[in-house]
Amino acid sequence: MEIREYIEQREKENLSSFAKLAIKSKGRAIFEPEDPIRTCFMRDRDRVIHSKAFRRLKHKTQVYISPGNDHFRTRLTHTLEVNQIAKTIGKGLRLNEDLIEAIALAHDVGHTPFAHSGEEVLNELMTDGFRHNENSVRVLTEVEQRSEGRGLNLSKEVLDGVLNHRGFDKDINRAETLEGQVVRLSDKVAYVQHDIDDSIRGGILRKCDLPKEPLEILGESHSARITTLVTDAIKHGFHELENSKEPKINLSPKIKKALIDLRTFMFEHIYNGEVCSKERESAMYVIEHLFKYYKKNPERLPLFYQTIAKTEGIERGVADYISGMSDNYCVTIFKELVIPRSFL
């Protein structure tokens, strides 16, 4: 028996009947022989970690653009926090942690520089719009390259989880697997809490500004709130697994409302607040300028993106190039195009 087969056998013996077993995967778009050591989901996780798109997350904004402080979250540290929260929930529910990890690590690789500001402006500029979850799938299937060709050729369950990680309070666009649903919930648990933490650290928000009722339910501290949310997700998940033929991953009504209230507060006072709005204007100006410049001058794109522009349209080629940029690289390219070289 190969090591992979031993791991697959342990999955069958130890995981919930609702877990997605690696041996039951729907497979890849292009057939590949099995790895002797790793399951399909383990291979997917490794391919994501070794991708350029994943490495670039360390220099992409989470909320605060170029904060100049190593203690603020980046898109990469957000991804790692989502991964850890999701794996804890998954372990508690006896789901497939390898699948959870592959989805969690990949879910934001299609995010633009300057976070949702970049996404908003590309969505306005592109004829067919731009959504980071769809772009993450595109990065994983078309933009990333291996020796075998374009795309990482990931399992269908991973791509489904990445595509359907957006949304929260509406019961739509759920991932097919419970593992994908765990990542979707963990994304919200992570960013609401760590964005509160960063906002307080940056002096933009005081703890006393937060709405009292959600804190009374979830906890006063960052760690207490995450503990409450993770514990509730596991307990509610157990109830679903035991009492439903088609269980879904969610929070209990009381805890979910408290999280939604905190999230609503953050949108009103931080994400759409004065500080972020000022940063958003500058970031959107930079990306809009680059988009229009490369659309007018496609020959200035790197050769790989020129090929995409010729085969899939100029907007697609330009969007692929810009969305893959880190914040710093985006600003550097903008300076080179706008500021006379003698001043640089």
UniProtKB/TrEMBL annotation:
Database matches in Gene3D superfamilies: Hypothetical protein af1432
Pfam families: HD, HD_assoc
GO terms assigned for molecular function: triphosphoric monoester hydrolase activity
Keywords from the UniProt entry: Hydrolase
Domain HD: residue ranges: 75-192
InterPro entries: dGTPase (IPR006261), Diverse_Catalytic_Enzymes (IPR051094), dNTPase_2 (IPR023023), HD/PDEase_dom (IPR003607), HD_domain (IPR006674), PHydrolase_assoc_dom (IPR026875)
Keyword Cell cycle part of the UniProt annotation: no
CDD domains, sorted: HDc
Domain of life: Bacteria
PANTHER family in the record: BIS(5'-NUCLEOSYL)-TETRAPHOSPHATASE, SYMMETRICAL, SLR1885 PROTEIN
Family to which the UniProt record says this protein belongs: Belongs to the dGTPase family. Type 2 subfamily.
Name of the protein: Deoxyguanosinetriphosphate triphosphohydrolase-like protein
Origin species: Desulfonispora thiosulfatigenes DSM 11270
